[in-house]
Design brief:
Layout lengths: L8 E9 L3 H10 L4 E6 L18 E8 L5 H12 L8 E5 L4 H8 L3 E3 L3 E5 L10 E5 L11 H12 L6 E5 L5 H8 L4 E6 L2 H13 L6 E5 L8 E7 L2 H6 L1 H7 E13 L3 H7 L5 E8 L2 E7 L4
Parallel strand pairs: 6-7, 8-9, 8-11, 9-10, 11-12
Antiparallel strand pairs: 1-3, 1-4, 2-3, 5-6, 12-14, 13-14
Length: 300
């Protein structure tokens, strides 16, 4: 690349396959790429991976940005040579006018109203509004901003229930959004649990933003926890939900409430079966492909 001072960038896009990704990435970095975006094409789905897992679609679209256009022909020829191809499928080069991308991103992160009284606000756009109980989040820290169906379903459930003076377990706390919301909605104490150190840090930082850090205890899933809870909320995935059913049964008080999500519609019956001895799921809400189940633990 030359030393161009142009404020514009050039977007280089093409289609490829997962098996070529290492060769492609190597050549992109050698030619000075400043960002790479990889998306799947077709109907293949990849869901939230466990820590350490990096799943990839078989058929992918690559979109990358360069400061200068002059090396792109050389890059294309190099890729064709190393991939043994005659053309790069669906190749396109587009001039991108430079913007303040941070400000553009912030504009897209707007407050989300949940039910009649809860509002999730990105930390850059908080507006004092007495109508709502407000939860302030840094949207970029970890999973859980209120926009994903599984998170919004859990938030709606929390907002609709009486949490006053309740002890709450937020399992798979992510950004801390569910636990912080529970405190803001009247809960006495929340324990947030996660397997991901970044999520634990994000939850602690967001708890401080909301001035509820004294009411929320954030721990790693391997840490000892002797408490029992009036309410359990777990927005994770079907497999760990099934594995945790007996643990939740021990942690939930008789008559306690439980809400689980991160469940795809075809997995609903499997989850219900796994929780038969835990709770009677009397609530089942679905948005798109995602399901939330909630109910009450039977008194023995």
């Amino acid at each position: 690349m030359n030393g161009s001072n142009s404020p514009d960038c050039y977007q280089f896009e093409f289609e490829t396959e997962e098996r070529y990704i290492e060769i492609i990435e190597k050549n992109l970095y050698l030619h000075g790429v400043i960002s790479i975006t990889i998306n799947g094409r077709g109907n293949e789905q990849i869901y939230e991976p466990l820590p350490g897992e990096i799943p990839m679609w078989k058929n992918i679209n690559i979109s990358c940005l360069f400061r200068d256009k002059s090396d792109l022909d050389l890059l294309e020829n190099k890729l064709l040579q190393e991939l043994n191809l005659k053309i790069l499928p669906k190749k396109k080069i587009t001039k991108i006018t430079q913007k303040d991308w941070h400000n553009e991103w912030q504009k897209s992160c707007v407050p989300i109203n949940i039910g009649k009284r809860l509002q999730i606000c990105p930390d850059h756009s908080k507006i004092n509004n007495d109508k709502y109980v407000q939860v302030i989040l840094n949207p970029g820290l970890a999973f859980g901003t209120g926009s994903h169906p599984t998170t919004s379903l859990c938030l709606e459930w929390l907002e609709a229930n009486n949490l006053n003076k309740k002890n709450v377990l937020d399992y798979g706390c992510g950004s801390g959004i569910l636990g912080i919301s529970a405190i803001k909605l009247g809960a006495k104490h929340v324990t947030g649990v996660d397997i991901d150190p970044q999520a634990i840090q994000a939850s602690k930082e967001n708890a401080k933003k909301n001035k509820v850090e004294d009411l929320i205890h954030i721990i790693h899933c391997d840490e000892e926890n002797e408490r029992k809870y009036d309410v359990i909320v777990a927005n994770i995935l079907a497999k760990p939900l099934i594995e945790l059913s007996s643990y939740f049964s021990k942690k939930l008080k008789d008559g306690g409430l439980i809400c689980v999500s991160g469940i795809l519609a075809p997995q609903t019956d499997e989850i219900k079966h796994a929780y038969e001895s835990v709770a009677n799921f009397s609530v089942c809400h679905q948005v798109g492909d995602w399901v939330m189940l909630a109910g009450t633990k039977s008194c023995i």
